[in-house]
Design a protein that fits this description.
The protein is of the alpha/beta class. It has 13 helices and 16 strands. The protein is flat and about 90 Å long. It is found in: Nucleus.
Length: 464
């Protein structure tokens, strides 16, 4: 299913402002989007433009497309003010930034905003504020740039509409909304999960997702239109309210051929005992049903086929990967899921707390059914740079959760691994033999050759 390239009616999208603030919107026909102090615009005025297009709100809330959010922004060289003729200060030692430095009042700024719209009002307000600023010329050039940048973000009446990919959705929920609703999952950890889980087109995946369908959405984007996802949940219905806002909403158990099939925990653990108690009617019996009962029967028959197909998939024990993002204790629940995976299947268990994964990691190391269990954590820090200096932003987040990864294997009992030994041991034996007589060396050489031949024969038998 290809994404819409142009802004389409009823789509959910991410509205981005020059300040970096974002808002999730639905583009309903004849709808009006309110951006607070930046104004409003009609949805009809932006329909048909490509996603990512930037717009500017002019007089009477008229929307016009522009090249980008940054185009035409005033910089220091363009400002026609006497304050900038003398340049800037080398440092901020003489800077006194108090409440009375700005002589322009709030009422005067609001009056200017009502006179004109778009980039003109931002330019006029910024120039007037600089003229009435008592210590702007005492700022360093870098401080002046930061001052202008803040004012642009505050007064520019611009916005862009971006397609709501899984990355855009996660970034919005993580920074703008309540991240605990998605278990503090960061965009870095989501990418790591897709990589360690080997998510690709044509796969057959088992997923436990309690982020509202966000993880499933990221997997569907990566899989294209090929493959299957079995969504395991603990309630009567899975929580997929975020997935319902995407183009994959129709892929959730709407037919036996849907990419996403849902199953609860009881059906998963006891698939044979949880077969639906339903007997299809033959053609003659079906024709005798009145019209309202036919509709009800068709609905039950469809659910019967969907449930049977997903139960058959569970019984096959042929899942290629496990993606686990849940508040259920992984130490007790994950071992019950593992028998349904095929050999060499990667597994990724996410939790926002490392302590919840440590105990499960110890179980994997002790039982030797999981190869290379490891706990990962990744944080991408944003940095602010100027010539000669660099430092991270002080408002960055450091959480994002942890993932436990591994590969399912079938250990073979009563098999002893045979190797060549360490290099240090060989050197020590060579030094000891050099001190012995030549006859002893010859005897030891023959005995070592015989031992080596025996080891090679034993190795060949094990490999066979």
């Amino acid at each position: 299913m290809e994404p819409h390239r142009n802004i389409t009616v009823d789509d959910y999208a991410i509205l981005r402002l020059p300040s970096g603030a974002r808002k999730m919107i639905q583009l309903r026909i004849e709808g009006v989007i309110n951006m607070g102090k930046f104004g409003t615009f009609n949805v009809e005025d932006v329909l048909g433009y490509p996603y990512g297009q930037a717009f500017e709100i002019g007089v009477e809330n008229k929307v016009s497309p522009i090249e980008s959010l940054e185009v035409g922004i005033t910089d220091l060289a363009e400002l026609d003010t006497d304050e900038l003729v003398s340049g800037s200060s080398k440092d901020n030692r003489l800077l006194i930034d108090g409440a009375n430095v700005q002589k322009l009042t709030v009422e005067e700024i609001e009056e200017m905003k009502n006179k004109m719209g778009g980039n003109e009002v931002a330019r006029e307000i910024i120039q007037t504020m600089i003229k009435n600023h008592g210590s702007f010329d005492k700022k360093t050039a870098y401080s002046q740039e930061k001052y202008l940048d803040r004012k642009h973000k505050k007064f520019l009446r611009r916005f862009s509409i971006n397609y709501m990919t899984s990355n855009e959705m996660l970034d919005y929920l993580y920074y703008e909304k309540e991240p605990f609703r998605i278990m503090n999952l960061s965009i870095e950890m989501l990418g790591s999960m897709m990589s360690f889980g080997n998510v690709m087109p044509g796969g057959n995946y088992l997923v436990v997702d309690e982020t509202g369908g966000l993880v499933v959405y990221a997997m569907l984007e990566r899989m294209g239109n090929r493959g299957t996802i079995t969504l395991l949940h603990e309630n009567d219905q899975p929580s997929v309210h975020l997935l319902n806002k995407t183009r994959y909403a129709k892929e959730i158990s709407t037919s036996p051929e849907s990419m996403v099939q849902c199953i609860n925990v009881l059906q998963f653990l006891e698939p044979e005992a949880e077969r639906p108690d339903f007997k299809p009617l033959d053609e003659e019996e079906y024709k005798k049903l009145p019209e309202p009962m036919r509709t009800q029967y068709d609905r039950k028959l469809k659910r019967f086929h969907i449930t049977n197909k997903v139960l058959d998939r569970v019984i096959e024990n042929d899942f290629e990967s496990l993606i686990y993002v849940s508040t259920l204790n992984p130490t007790t629940f994950v071992p019950k899921i593992l028998p349904r995976l095929r050999g060499s299947s990667p597994l990724v268990i996410y939790n926002q707390y490392k302590e919840a994964l440590i105990e499960l990691n110890h179980i994997f190391l002790r039982e030797k059914g999981i190869l290379l269990p490891n706990i990962h954590h990744s944080v991408v820090r944003k940095y602010q740079t100027i010539p000669g200096r660099i430092h991270p932003l002080m408002t960055s987040r450091s959480d994002g959760g942890y993932i436990l990864t591994g590969i399912k294997v079938f250990p073979i009992e009563n098999v002893v691994a045979v190797g060549r030994g360490s290099k240090k041991r060989k050197i020590a034996k060579a030094n000891e033999s050099s001190e012995d007589s030549p006859s002893e060396k010859i005897g030891e050489t023959k005995s070592e050759e015989s031992k080596a031949s025996e080891i090679l024969e034993a190795t060949e038998e094990v490999l066979i």
